[in-house]
Structure formats: C-alpha cells, structure tokens
Amino acid sequence: MATSMNTITLERAGAAARPARLPIADDKAMLKAAAELTRDLVKPNAGIYWADLIGSSLVGYGALAVAILSGTLWVAIVAGIVAVLALYRGMSMIHELTHVKHASLPGFRTGWNALIGVPMMIPSFMYEGVHNLHHAKTRYGTAEDPEYLPLALMKPWTLPVFILVSALAPIGLLIRFGVLAPLSALSPALRETVIARYSALSINPQFRRRMPQGDEKARWDMLETVTAIWALALIVTTVTGVLPLKAVLVFLAVGSGVALINQVRTLVAHLWENEGEVMTVTAQYLDSVNVPPPALLPVLWAPIGLRYHALHHLLPGVPYHALAEAHRRLSDVLEPDSPYYKANYRGLPGLVGKIATATMRGR
C-alpha cells in the first residue's frame, strides 16, 4: 500500500553505467505449487476481518483520545504510539478491500469507510481501481504502475526524501478533501485535475487516474462528499476555536506517524530494481519481499499480511489471514533451490541497508 497521493520526481543514479539485466524466466514448479496448494485458502473469514477492523478502531481511537486529553507528557506519548500502530493496522485493511470479493464480506467496505476511511480521510476509492494496476502482469514495474519507482536505481538522497515527505500526508489529505473537493464542484477543469492527480494513494508521479463511471462514480461521489464534510468540519471548528488546537495537532501527528511507518514499509516491500521492462511473474516475485517468522517486529510495521508481500504477488486472491498457512505449505514442499526462498528476508534493517547500498553504488 503506497502512502502519498503524489510525490516529487526522484532522480535516477548511474543509468548509463549499469549493465542490462537478463530476463528472469518463470519458475513453473513454484507457480504450479502456489496455485495447487492454496485452492482452499481463498475464502475470507468474515469474523477475522470484522474483529480486526473493530478492534483496531477501538484501540486506535481510544488511545488517540488519551493522547489528546492526558495532561502527562509520557502518557500522551505512549498513547500516541499505540494510536499510530492500531490505526495503521486498521488503515492497512484498505489493501484487502482491493482484492476481496465484496459479496463474500457483506457490508465490510461500508464498515471500513465509516470507521477508518472517512475519519482518516482515505476513503476506499483512493486505492480501489489503483492497486489492481500494480498487480497487472504487464504493468508491474513499468511507467504505468502507480505503485512503483526504481528507488534502488536513484540517488541516495532520494530515500530519506521519499520517507520524510510522507509526514505531510495528513495536511495534503485535509487540503484535498476540505479545500479542493468543494472548489472542484464549481470548476470542471479543477475537478479533472483533482481526480487525475490527487485521488490515488500512489508513489508514481506520472500516474493519472481516469474519471470514474457508473456505480464506481456513485460510490466515489458519496464517499468524497462525506469525507469533504468531515474535513471541512475539522478546518472550521479549529479556526473558530470550537475544537482545541491541541486535539487537531495530535490527530495530525498521529496521521503523520501512520504515514511514515507505511512509507518505510513501502520502501522495503520491493527491491525496486526494475527500470520499466515488463517482468515475468517470477521476476515480480523476486523483486518483492517476504519477512516471515521468526522475525517478530513485522507484526507491527507490516500488519494485515504485508509481511508476506512477495507471496501476495503470487497469490493476490488469498486473504491476509491465510498467507502464513500458504507460506508454510509452500516451504514444506518446494526444493531448497527454489526461487521461492530468495524473496525471504530477515528484517527491516537489512532491507533498508540493501536498498541504500544499491543507490550509493548506482546499480
């Protein structure tokens, strides 16, 4: 899941000095095992989804309230951290909304938008219709992929900029829904710009959204209207002094914390080594990252199955709660020389170091 609605253009490093990469052929044994061993894992468990959503929301907003109301600094800081982690987990479920068949989880999209999407100003249309392009076989890693940049091939300074700019996401979302959405209702030209450039959780600055049509447009308009009312209410009540400035600042700080964690996770979700060529499924898998057990911290920084991001690219239809079982089954049957194991990494520091080293070497 990418964080920013758009991002700055990041400069590539040493393109002329890099040798051409040889194409990676599909590993038929791995792809066949992945398909055959997981046929019974594709049904989402509604109880798990709803419990996770409601639990994350209760903990997140409860901790946010404590952070706002507490007069003790250390209590406010601890509560703020809890709020960031819980709301980050809840917001990460937007990734599931783009893959799950909504008929198998009646009302879940509405529930997620009510509890997370609208209050945090990331309604589901910001990701639905966007993330599926990242999984399109002929789009992954190309200029048409909204969630891909060759970060490992760029200048070293681009990595900290990539991460730190995400801290501005709550301000950007407040402006997008509280200012641009109402104004765009009065200007067709501005409306086209808002939809094309500021209506997607993407990291590719060249990506442009198409205008929504049919049922998608009706759902989009409803969610955008409700979110705009919420954003306007935050702005007006803050300016008029009805809502204490501290409450708004804590809310925005928690939102920034969520965006920062997600951007770091995005940084290590792939190796970011493709320069625009169409890739095989196996090549896409090897450019992606799993951080399986025994690592413990990914439970916090890569929740809702995101620790199995490479496996998810093999099996995008498997719900997050079944990915651990899918990983176990594949690990039990695939030979030690299978490319499956080459996408498994130990943890966050090594992955960040790998990408940072690649930028410094210009390769």
From TrEMBL:
Q: Does the keyword Transferase apply?
A: no
Keyword annotations from UniProtKB, A to Z? Membrane, Transmembrane, Transmembrane helix
* InterPro entries tied to this protein: FA_desaturase_dom, Fatty_acid_desaturase
Biological process (GO) annotations held by this record are:
lipid biosynthetic process
What protein is this chain from? Fatty acid desaturase
Q: Which GO terms describe its molecular function?
A: oxidoreductase activity, acting on paired donors, with oxidation of a pair of donors resulting in the reduction of molecular oxygen to two molecules of water
Output a single Gene Ontology CC term carried by this record. membrane
Which parts of the sequence belong to the Fatty acid desaturase domain? Answer: 74-341
Bilayer-spanning residue ranges = 58-88, 157-179, 228-261
